[in-house]
Design brief:
Number of domains: 1
Largest sheet: 8 strands, antiparallel, barrel
Distance between the termini: 16 Å
Strand content: 35-45%
Order of helices and strands: HEHHEEEEEEHEEEEE
Strand order of the largest sheet: 1-3-4-5-6-8-11-12
Number of strands: 12
Radius of gyration: 16 Å
Oligomer: single chain
């Protein structure tokens, strides 16, 4: 598996999408056979978004932005979504955007890792525009916040020739997401 250029993590190429779907499908089948993944192996690490198996407004907007049309000017992702999981299970998910071509904006979801289930439950959300305006629980972020994210597996695929940890999550009712660990930790996944 190879990473693609920075584009917010959007995968538009059909062959790459099929390869990701195959990998996530194998993770799902493996999780069914191996039982629940060790959620604590996600703690104390930062993760970067790599793939989503479903298309939502964010994905469509990023695909349109890549064409340098009006969407690129109005609202576009900058970089990839980050997920930070502290020891103890506090979690923060953050997206960075550009509005109107010049206003930086961030949307942040805060929640916790529930080890028993295992899943992430997002409890609050906020948007920060240009570092000046804070919007508590903006409607678009709240629509994404309400669904728990089940942890399906923690894999160790080869990425650019090196073993890296990949967390496979399921956004209940929507599809799967994949996050690659930024810096290796000493936690070893139970079902890798």
């Amino acid at each position: 598996m190879m990473r693609w250029p920075e584009s917010g993590g959007v995968v538009a190429d059909a062959g790459s999408r099929l390869a990701w779907e195959r990998l996530l499908g194998e993770a799902f089948l493996g999780s069914e056979a191996d039982g629940m993944p060790d959620a604590s192996s996600l703690e104390g690490a930062s993760w970067t978004f790599e793939f989503r198996s479903y298309t939502n407004e964010e994905e469509l907007g990023a695909m349109m932005s890549a064409q340098l049309g009006l969407q690129w000017l109005l609202f576009r992702a900058v970089g990839r979504t980050s997920l930070k999981v502290e020891q103890g299970g506090q979690a923060e998910l953050e997206d960075t955007f550009m509005l109107f071509g010049f206003l930086p904006a961030k949307i942040r979801w805060c929640g916790r890792l529930i080890k028993k289930d295992p899943e992430f439950r997002w409890e609050t959300s906020e948007a920060v525009v240009a570092g000046l305006w804070v919007i508590d629980r903006p409607a678009p972020a709240e629509r994404l916040r309400k669904d728990p994210w089940k942890i399906q597996a923690v894999l160790e695929p080869l990425v650019d020739g090196k073993k890296r940890r990949l967390a496979v999550l399921e956004r209940v009712g929507h599809g799967r997401l994949a996050f690659l660990e930024d810096t290796p930790t000493h936690n070893t996944p139970k079902n890798a």
